[in-house]
């Protein structure tokens, strides 16, 4: 495939290509251009030209176009889902569901656009009025990761477009194909040329050029904390606005009075979804001692029942996207084993027919984990969960907050007062009590501490692409 710039397919100026591989087999699926600063400049200038017109489009028309794009996503969900399946390796049904759920978010952002308004505070003297309005921040650079490449791009794109901004998107090197196809679909659905541009390449080759370019006014990034810090430092040179959704190391607390079966089911489902490749998954669990053994048994039973689909087969989980992600799971598992932890299930790379060509690691439970183990200190982004016994809920809360990250937290406790107190005490942007549902499209999503800056989704996401402007009006009052 090619890059999509100013409503048309485009090759890289220097002609370089990057291979896109199937994580199930390691074989090449396609290739995309390896862009450079020249390509970044071309895409940004196309977005800048488009924004001069797009920002003037009436909100009701922006809403109509965005809803048409959402409907086009649904109509092409099977096709784009196949592309996503091939580049990510996640089971096909889940890939197609991601497309449909992302379309829902576009609709929600569109509806939030209709609720935007200016205000005229009362209290001015005769012949004087003050209007507080909001304008689009400017051209946006949106950088999305591999794990949910469509959904996490729509977090940014849907909010930016409805606010009147235009976008240059850079998908992850592992998963560019679905994003490129969506850009074409949106253009065909009526989005004007230059409003949604997609460039491909490496972070060094084109990512840095996008961030450092003087025209964009905002960077929206989802990815690792180290990369987020580098982007923030580079963006400081031109004082770009930032939305950074970064790493997570989310903890669950299981109290002695918890519904153990419900807790085990929720933690297993959430901790191993997408083979553990998402930022707010359960990474570590603190369990009060009276129910520790019962919880381990219930969780292990569910984890052992999960199946890993071999290449061309079916199952609950797919492969990890590349060797780098796989190596983290191996390293953390080996580290825990060496330091005395019990591996209840999994713990080693899957091999054999259907697995040898890909990056397969099974659901892994690490019992009796201690604070010095990597699984309890570092983001895994793989199918590992560390579990630690604690004497009190207060100890669990202290250990939960003893982290650089603050993206999500989870509490299981029948005592509502105690559960709410724990939820309030967890230093995280989102907290769940007694179950783990998908994050809602209507409410803010983002992290505290080194898990990021800013919020996405709902009206909160749209507002992050707007600047306040105050206008002071003076006029003659008729006699």
From TrEMBL:
Region Disordered, residue ranges: 16-37
SUPFAM superfamilies listed in its UniProt record: ALDH-like
Domain Aldehyde dehydrogenase: 9-470
Alphabetic keyword roster: Oxidoreductase
The keyword Oxidoreductase belongs to this UniProt entry's keyword annotation: yes
Segments forming a coiled coil: none
Claim: Cell membrane is one of the keywords in the record: no
Xref: Pfam families: Aldedh
Compositionally biased region (Polar residues): 21-36
Top EC class of this enzyme: oxidoreductase
The protein's Enzyme Commission number: 1.2.1.20
Alphabetical list of InterPro entries matching this protein: Ald_DH/histidinol_DH, Ald_DH_C, Ald_DH_N, Aldehyde_DH_dom, Aldehyde_DH_Superfamily
GO terms, molecular function: glutarate-semialdehyde dehydrogenase (NADP+) activity
Family: Belongs to the aldehyde dehydrogenase family.
Name by which UniProt lists this protein: Glutarate-semialdehyde dehydrogenase DavD
Species whose genome carries this gene: Pseudoprimorskyibacter insulae
Name of encoding gene: davD_2
């Amino acid at each position: 495939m090619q890059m999509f710039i100013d409503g048309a397919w485009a090759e890289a100026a220097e002609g370089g290509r990057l291979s896109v591989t199937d994580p199930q087999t390691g074989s090449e699926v396609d290739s995309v251009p390896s862009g450079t600063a020249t390509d970044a400049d071309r895409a940004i200038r196309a977005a800048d030209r488009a924004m001069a017109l797009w920002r003037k489009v009436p909100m009701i028309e922006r809403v109509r176009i965005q809803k048409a794009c959402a409907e086009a996503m649904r109509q092409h969900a099977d096709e784009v889902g196949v592309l996503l399946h091939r580049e990510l390796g996640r089971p096909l049904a889940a890939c197609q569901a991601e497309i449909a759920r992302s379309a829902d978010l576009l609709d929600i952002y569109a509806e939030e656009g209709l609720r935007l308004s200016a205000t005229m505070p009362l209290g001015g003297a005769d012949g004087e009025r003050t209007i507080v309005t909001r304008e689009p921040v400017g051209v946006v650079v949106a950088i999305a990761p591999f794990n949910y490449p469509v959904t996490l791009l729509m977090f940014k794109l849907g909010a930016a477009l409805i606010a009147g901004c235009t976008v240059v998107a850079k998908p992850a090197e592992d998963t560019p194909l679905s994003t490129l196809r969506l850009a074409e679909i949106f253009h065909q659905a009526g989005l004007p040329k230059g409003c949604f541009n997609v460039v491909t390449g490496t972070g060094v080759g084109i990512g840095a050029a996008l961030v450092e370019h003087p025209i964009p006014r905002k960077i929206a990034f989802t990815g690792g904390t180290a990369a987020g810090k580098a982007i923030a430092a580079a963006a400081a040179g031109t004082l770009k606005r930032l939305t950074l959704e970064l790493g997570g190391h989310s903890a669950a607390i299981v109290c002695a009075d918890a519904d153990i079966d419900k807790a085990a089911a929720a933690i297993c489902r959430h901790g191993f979804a997408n083979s553990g490749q998402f930022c707010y998954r359960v990474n570590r669990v603190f369990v009060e001692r009276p129910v520790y053994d019962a919880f381990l048994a219930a969780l292990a039973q569910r984890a052992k029942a999960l199946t890993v689909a071999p290449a061309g087969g079916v199952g609950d989980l797919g492969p990890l996207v590349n060797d780098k992600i796989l190596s983290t799971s191996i390293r953390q598992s080996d580290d825990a084993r060496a330091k005395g932890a019990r591996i209840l299930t999994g713990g080693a790379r899957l091999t054999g027919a259907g697995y040898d060509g890909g990056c397969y690691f099974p659901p892994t439970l690490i019992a009796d984990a201690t604070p010095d183990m990597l699984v309890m200190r570092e983001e895994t982004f793989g199918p590992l969960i560390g579990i630690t016994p604690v004497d009190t809920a207060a100890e669990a809360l202290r250990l939960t907050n003893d982290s650089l990250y603050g993206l999500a937290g989870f509490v299981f406790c029948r005592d509502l007062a105690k559960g709410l107190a724990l939820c309030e005490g967890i230093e995280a942007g989102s907290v769940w009590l007694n179950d783990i549902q998908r994050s809602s499209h209507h409410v803010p999503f983002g992290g505290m501490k080194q898990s990021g800056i800013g919020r996405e989704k709902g009206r909160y996401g749209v507002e992050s692409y707007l600047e306040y402007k105050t206008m002071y009006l003076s006029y003659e009052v008729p006699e």
